[in-house]
Amino acid sequence: MHSPAKGLERAISESSCTFLNHSSPVDTKIAENDDAALSPPLPSTSELQALLALPLLDEHGQEAIFGDILNDPAAVNSDKAVIVLFIRHFWCPLDQDYVQEVGDILRNKAGKKAIPEVIIISNGSPALIAKYKEIFDLEAEKGSNLKVKMYTDPTCRTYGVLGLENVGEATHVSTSRSYVKHTSVIGGIATVVLRAIKVGMPVWEKGGAIKQLGGEFVTGRNPEMQVACVFAHRMRDTQDHTPFGDVLKIA
Known about the structure:
It is a single chain. By secondary structure, this protein is of the alpha/beta class. 34% of the residues lie in helices and 15% in strands. The strands form 2 sheets. A 5-stranded mixed beta sheet has the order 5-4-3-6-7, with helices on one face. Strands 1-2 form a two-stranded antiparallel sheet. Strand 6 and strand 7 form a beta hairpin. Helix 1 (4-13) crosses helix 9 and helix 7 crosses helix 9. The radius of gyration is 17 Å and the shape is globular.
């Protein structure tokens, strides 16, 4: 019999998460000059073309080409942006804090006004997608305009094309974002374990690349109605996602 607590504790303890002290004020504004200096610019045309040709896996393990996902009829016929969020691995408590913020903000806005489609990409087993979405209530109810899709890239090739680095490779910034709720390893482990048990998550499946960092991208359409990237942010440490409220303002 698989032990959820034991398996998850091992995964999280090896996940290279860095828990920072929250005693100092946190500036959640996007520092454009700082990001320009420390994070690569928008993907080039060739990088974007390479990205759109790469495969992702849906929750059934079926392959879907990135470009086809962004070029579905709903996206092509809409002038709304698409937000693409690359998270680290499924067991990262800090990224679970981020996805919790994403879900909370989207549910609060759903039904009140049009919201962009959100695509979340991880790099673990596709068998974890459905339960992960269930944890954060990301499935749209009938009649809701909540649009969240989730895929995984176990190869991390999409991460590589976009310049998303590993822990320790990027220029480190010791700043905690406002979405981070867990300030200790023990608290993070406990929350992840309880969530997994509650929804019956298959904890024996691979959670993903433990050192991989993620990032946030906003795509739109150029005058020729081709996919174009209008915003890019690459994490420089394990607590460096752009607060989702700020991403929505850009979209």
